[in-house]
Amino acid sequence: MMRTARLSALLLALALLAGCAPGSREDTVHFTAMDTVIQLSVYGCDHGEETLSEARQLIQELDGLLSTTDEDSQIHALNQGETVALAQPVQALLERALALCADTGGAFDITIYPVVRAWGFTTDSHQVPTQEELSALLARVDYRQVEPQGGTLTLPQGVELDLGGVAKGYASQQVAQLLREEGVDCALIDLGGSIQAIGSSPDGDPWSVGIRDPRSDSPEDYAAVVRVTDQAVVTSGMYERYFEQDGVRYGHIIDPDTGYPVDNGLASVTVVSPDATLADALSTALFVMGRDGAAQYWRGREDFEFVLMGEDGSIAISEGLEGSFSLAGEQGSVSLEVIRR
Ligand code: ADP
Ligand code: MG
Fold first, then answer.
1. What is the pTM (predicted TM-score) of this model?
2. Ligand 1 pocket: which of 170, 252, 269, 280 to mutate (most atoms within 8 A of CB)
């Protein structure tokens, strides 16, 4: 929670450095939803307050539909085996998410929930499941079993959905659309570290978004800054949710092939894209793919760039970020690799 608030503080500070004109109108709201701290800021909008309250309502509605834990949510009902007439945003996100599951070859899989629960990440009472338990649960994991019929869905017995890997990105995309419709051309949407920038900062410079140093316990330590205009910047970090047992660190991103938390040397993955839903899903998927798999996947597409931070402190960026990425502070010793097409 704190990390998010501090990230927001840094964003604002950087926005000010970038020249947010003193005196230009700024409206901001903070609240908690989707299990995280949310900050929305719009600049130079004469109906900013009303617009932000609409945006807040929109996020709360989406949270109410998509939450795995809220007993009134559509996802909860689906996971109970009920047949659900999907609300329009749930149907839209589900279709998008299923397409991303297929496109990533199942590295992203929205049916991973039973495995996430077995590791205790849903309740914070963490444990290492037995191999037998994992094998049994993995038999229930396969996004291809999710087949909406028109606007209606019934999940097969034992299959459960978790849209947690895309929900924040989708919500920030929906908020961005709402703000643009309201004529806002300068705003920052921060959903627990999923950032969506609208336009550039008020003086015309790009927004500067800090990327946390994944090896530091302090959420205030930034390893890098990326400058963006009209883009989402979404990071999945090993530091977000993990537990340690017998000296091993287990993180909250699960490899759907093994049922084990990803352990491939990556400490965080950041995806930069105009499409926040894509960025959110891919920050999880590239983590599962690992460095080489991520690079190969990126070479096959044109719609995103990435930053990979390793547990050894190394950093790799895709070449599209070369002009907009910079290391924070005195990081002369960091190895920075540019991955090319
Ligand atoms: P966060 O929600 O912590 O910002 P992510 O966007 O990286 O992080 O999503 C991680 C969440 O997605 C996990 O908490 C879990 O619910 C779910 N998840 C874990 N592994 C996968 C996976 N391989 N595919 C899809 N969702 C996953
Ligand atoms: Mg994600």
1. 0.92
2. 252
| Distance of CA 164 from the midpoint of ligand 1 (Å) | 6
**CB of residue 339 inside a 6 A radius of ligand 1:** no
Distance (Å, rounded) from C-alpha 12 to C-alpha 6? 10
Assess whether the C-beta atom of 278 lies below 6 angstroms from ligand 1.
no
Query: In this structure, which long-range contacts are made by residues 155-159, counting pairs with CB atoms below 8 Å and at least 24 apart in sequence?
Result: 155/78, 155/79, 155/81, 157/81, 158/114, 159/111
Three-state secondary structure readout of 240-254? CCEEEECCEEEECCE
**Over the stretch 36-65, which tens digit does the pLDDT of each residue have?**
999 999 999 999 999 999 999 999 999 999
- CB 173 less than 6 A from any atom of ligand 1: no
Q: What is the pLDDT of residues 106-132, one digit of tens each?
A: 999 999 999 999 999 999 899 999 999
Count the helices and strands in the chain (H runs, E runs). 8, 16
For residues 141 and 112, is the Cβ–Cβ distance under 8 A? Answer: yes
